[in-house]
Amino acid sequence: MPTGLLSKATEIDLSTLVPGGAVTALLRVTIRPPTAGVLIYVGPDYEMPIVANGPVWEGHVDCYPSRIYVQGVGESEPRWSVEYIGHEARAAAAS
Predict the structure, then answer these.
(1) pLDDT tens digit string along 21-44?
(2) Distance in angstroms (rounded) separating the CA atoms of residues 10 and 68
(3) pLDDT of 43-74, one tens digit each?
């Protein structure tokens, strides 16, 4: 894990969700209870999290590096799930 701030965060390997060549992934995070939230830490430095408030957050995250970390905040022990719903790929080289 990159820093001590993430000691309670769950690691998610985007390479198991997103096709190769993806630059960003569009994710849907469902959070329960709906008044809770999560912090989504993306690389390369994992220092400034994306704040995702419940009940549902959708947004893009960078795919490199391929690991993100998700940590529940707010209500005690919020439950959450991450779903891949799309991506942006690298532009094809011009011939």
Answers:
(1) 889 999 999 999 999 999 999 999
(2) 8
(3) 998 989 999 999 999 999 999 899 999 999 87
- Nearest Cα residue to 8 out of 93, 83, 69, 86: 69
3-state secondary structure at position 15:
helix
Beta strands in 20-77 (DSSP E): 22-32, 37-42, 50-53, 56-62, 67-73
Residue count of the chain? 95
Residue type at 31 in one-letter notation: I
Task: Assign 19 to helix, strand or coil.
Answer: coil
Going from the C-alpha of 70 to that of each of 27, 37, 44, 51, 90, the distances in angstroms are 12, 10, 15, 10, 25
Token code pair at residue 68 = 């993100």
Coarse DSSP helix, strand, coil percentages of the chain, rounded to the nearest 5 percent:
5, 55, 40
Distance CA 90, CA 1 (A): 27
Q: Are strands 67-73 and 37-42 parallel, antiparallel or unpaired?
A: antiparallel
